[in-house]
Write a structure and sequence with these properties.
Layout: H1 15-22, H2 29-39, H3 41-56, E1 74-81, E2 90-92, E3 107-110, E4 117-122, E5 127-132, E6 170-172, E7 178-182, H4 200-204, E8 213-218, E9 223-227, E10 236-238, E11 246-248, E12 254-258, H5 260-266, H6 269-272, E13 273-277, E14 279-280, E15 305-306, E16 315-316, E17 322-326, E18 332-337, E19 347-351, E20 362-367, E21 373-377, E22 381-385, E23 408-412, E24 433-436, E25 447-450, E26 457-462, E27 465-470, E28 482-486, E29 496-501, E30 518-525
Antiparallel strand pairs: 1-30, 2-3, 3-4, 4-5, 6-7, 7-8, 8-9, 10-11, 11-12, 12-13, 14-15, 16-17, 17-18, 18-19, 20-21, 21-22, 22-23, 24-25, 25-26, 26-27, 28-29, 29-30
Helix pairs in contact: 1-3, 2-3
Length: 532
């Protein structure tokens, strides 16, 4: 439906005018208008209109290649999920650290702005259900306001998105509990987070507000527990340490964590959490020194320097470090080493993609079992960064981003480059990279997989070449995350699989129309196309 303009919204003299009206529709209209203004509304709308007019006149893009080799062995299973007025952001099927956990068990999802429940799928019974969510403070406002620039062509002025929790990301722990990034209260922080507090993190980096926090749901007891964090949250992932540290992104100027073992033992959310600024060791003495220069100040070789970017993705590595991606141009990936007494000992390293090779702007990133970071780049690449390949110093006054180009390897994603662009890369716009650390799919351990959002499938890199796991129906497969689970290690291909969602905020744009729901999609890999 994105290539067609819905009827019933009046007459428009030009397709440009119709597009201008269209992107003001519904609760997302304000966000769409502000976003298109950032890139130049007139030029962008003219391009949209030109595309629509050319399609109407019969022009079609070049067809994608037919599946080849192991691509022909992919098995796809789909379930309807949630409800027609909600949309999915993420799902989780197992513990990232042990993908045999929750074998054949329930799949949990995140509905972000749309609704205050966790959608649940029982794939063995083909049944869906809901876990109702709550906030701690009833004064918490919905994350998305009711204002509309123009009514929706599908739901008129009905306020569809009503979530206060704004759950973005779910994750299993080893006990089978589901941890979520979730708003539990209004954004103003309690006193222990702020200036003047004796909290170890607040003394170094006080935080006044946090827009999203944490919660945990225990399926065994059906209990939901709110956890108020001083730092905002977005993505979350558990470390492989004795404290089962839960690391988060989305904190802006700080990176936050929860000592989950301490929280389980004490229930004390204040003492169990911590956060740190990202501080670079620009004086090269191997330790963090307070009195560092600020984000907008030049490097002083005698002092450390605070880095201004914030984590978008977060991925704890097996060696105890934590990697995060930083959005923007050229963007970066950041390695955070907590040290023995964080935040006082926490040090960061920043690595920017090599802009002289036309690589830029990581989004979602992940790490493999060898500590190699994999990231989807806006330049149309899947990139790997191997810190072990760096030849020069990794601290000191020159270690500010472009100091290790040799650590980067670029893989052009399997779409053509945009017309008229001669730089390396492609027109692909992958949202996230997930690494199949434990071979839950069948292409081997440590296989990086991009979400392939313009390819309508997943893009798995095997031996330096992409394997495209294309979803033929419904058209427009668009996911923001995936994970993999082993239901039966001895069950061959049927005992393994990848899980994802259709994550568009507009499921009614899919080919089945207004009452279409989001989907759960499972990918499996047979040894040959006819294997049973």
């Amino acid at each position: 439906a994105t290539r067609e303009l819905p009827p019933g919204r009046g007459h428009f003299n030009t397709t440009y005018d119709a597009w201008m009206r269209r992107i003001q529709s519904g609760q997302a209209g304000g966000n769409m208008m502000s976003t298109i203004n950032l890139i130049g509304a007139q030029r962008a709308l003219a391009m949209f209109a030109d595309w629509t007019d050319r399609v109407k006149a019969g022009e079609v893009p070049p067809p994608p290649p037919r599946p080849q080799g192991v691509e022909r062995n992919v098995v796809i299973t789909e379930w309807d999920w949630a409800d027609a007025k909600a949309y999915l952001h993420d799902e989780v099927s197992t513990d990232r650290r042990n993908p045999t956990l929750n074998a054949n068990g329930l799949i949990y999802g995140a509905l972000e702005l749309s609704a205050d429940y966790l959608p649940v799928l029982d794939p063995t019974k083909n049944a869906i259900s809901q876990v109702k969510l709550t906030v701690r403070d009833p004064a918490t406002e919905p994350a998305q306001g009711p204002m509309m620039l123009q009514p929706s062509p599908y739901y008129d002025r009905e306020v569809m998105w009503t979530s206060k929790n704004n759950v973005h990301n779910p994750m299993f722990d080893e006990k089978g509990r589901v941890w979520i990034t979730s708003t539990v209260r209004p954004p103003d922080n309690p006193a222990y987070c702020r200036e003047g507090s004796d909290h170890p993190s607040a003394k170094l980096t006080p935080v006044a507000r946090a827009g999203r926090h944490l919660a945990v749901y225990d399926p065994k007891t059906q209990k939901l527990t709110h956890i108020s964090t001083c730092f905002s949250t977005h993505h979350l992932m558990f470390a492989e340490d004795a404290n089962h540290t839960l690391w988060t992104s989305g904190g802006g100027a700080v990176v936050g964590w929860l000592n989950r073992r301490m929280f389980d033992e004490t229930g004390d959310e204040a003492k169990s959490q911590g956060w740190t600024a990202l501080v670079l060791d620009t004086n090269g003495n191997g330790r963090r020194d307070e009195g560092y220069v600020g984000t907008n100040e030049p490097v002083d070789p005698a002092k450390d320097k605070r880095y201004g970017g914030g984590f978008y993705s977060v991925s704890p590595a097996p060696d105890g470090s934590v990697w995060g991606s930083v959005l923007g141009y050229p963007g970066a990936i950041v390695r955070l080493v907590p040290g023995s007494n964080p935040p006082a000992t926490a040090l960061a390293e920043v690595y920017e993609p090599p802009i002289d090779r036309h690589a830029f702007s990581p989004r979602g990133a992940d790490v493999d079992r060898n500590g190699v970071v994999w990231a989807a780049l806006a330049s149309g690449h899947l990139a790997s960064f191997d810190r072990r390949k760096c030849k020069g110093p990794l601290n000191g006054p020159k270690a500010t981003g472009q100091h290790c180009p040799e650590g980067w390897t670029l893989y052009q994603e399997p779409l053509p480059q945009m017309k008229g662009v001669n730089d390396p890369g492609s027109a692909e716009a992958s949202y996230y990279t997930w690494v199949d650390q434990f071979d839950t799919f069948g292409l081997g351990a440590n296989t990086p997989i991009n979400t392939g959002n313009e390819s309508e499938g997943l893009l798995a890199l095997k031996d330096g070449k992409f394997v495209v796991l294309r979803v033929p129906y419904p058209m427009g497969y668009y996911t923001k995350w995936l994970d993999g689970r082993i239901d039966d290690a001895r069950g061959g291909w049927k005992g393994r699989g990848l899980w994802s969602t259709i994550s568009t905020r507009a499921p009614f744009h899919m080919e089945t129309g207004k009452e279409t729901t989001s989907k759960v999609i499972k990918f499996q890999l047979r040894p040959d196309p006819l294997a049973k």
